[in-house]
Structures
1.
Amino acid sequence: MARKLLLTPIRRLGLELCCLYAATPPAFTLLGVLLYLMRIDGIDDATWTGAWSALTAYGALRMATHETGAPRILLTDRPRSLLPALHGISALLLLTLFLGPHIVNHLLGLLGEDVHRDVMTWLRHFYRNAAVQPALVAVFGFQVISGLVLLCQPQSQPISPFQVLQRASGLYLAVFIPAHLNSVFNLARRNGVETDYAWATGQPAGLLDDAWNIRLVPHYALAILLLAIHLACAVRVVLMAHGVRERTANGWAWILMLAGGVLDAAVLAGMLGMRL
């Protein structure tokens, strides 16, 4: 994972398309929710196919007309800007105040819906506070916007595989967050639906036995894993910036990714019906 790659125009296009492909699960979920809110039924697949056909055609045209010349170099481990630091600080706040407890709450779904509900009710005294909830949404908004700015920002160093992972996972999260917020606020709460474990797992049909709900399996399955990958890549950058050897920093990144994968699998197992 130490090898770095200079981005030619074709490679850059490939990277952009791969990042978009990585974000397809939350994007497809967001599309379904938006069509449902507009009361347009039965055209999810056709709309999705049309959108990706247009994107594929765009990519083909870009490849056929790409500019020649020297490779364009992208990315660096240490961007010269305050924005990466602010992005990291807001991520730490979200992880500590919301995402960490929220993920643990979902992990407790393995013990049953009653346990999940009890912990959720207790946490909501904080999450749904009249001052805290808007602040959390605002920080999520900053996280998405700042992340997209960083994603589109060219830098002065070759790209490494870890940076590719960071970009792809970041774009996934940039789509997942507004998709999830839209589902919670516009779809559920606006219609008086309780956003509990039964709602998250698509009850009574479940996630696997319903033609619409099954799209939520990859939507949820990749969320925690790619969050862990994104955080692991960021931790790697911070460690190297503080003098830690690249090999050691890479090792810690892999450990965090592995831990995220285990946590992700456990949460998904609970959502699919496994109980301890």
2.
Amino acid sequence: MKQEEIRKCTKVVELFRSMMDELGDMCVVYDEMFGFIVLEYYMDGYFENNSNYDNVEDLYHHLLDKWKFCWIVDKAKVNGTEEFEDYEPSLTKEQRAERDKVLAHFEAAFWQIQTE
């Protein structure tokens, strides 16, 4: 990977740092040979899932999708929704506005990372 791509990927990882810290069962590491590796679902001394990325866009979209999933699962618990297909319809207007605000923040931050 080129140094510029490594720098951008590192900034994307930092953009999602609070999510990873809150979850406590995932991290992103960098390796010269394999690029950025997302390690997820730490249990019994190992990670159950890993994904490798060598470009900022794919890494960003993976972490954004993870954030979206975790966010909607959290709101489903708050709303008392049990079935996955009911998660989105159960969101309140305020929750949708909250999500849109955070997504706009991520998109703006990602745009800035790409244009620096």
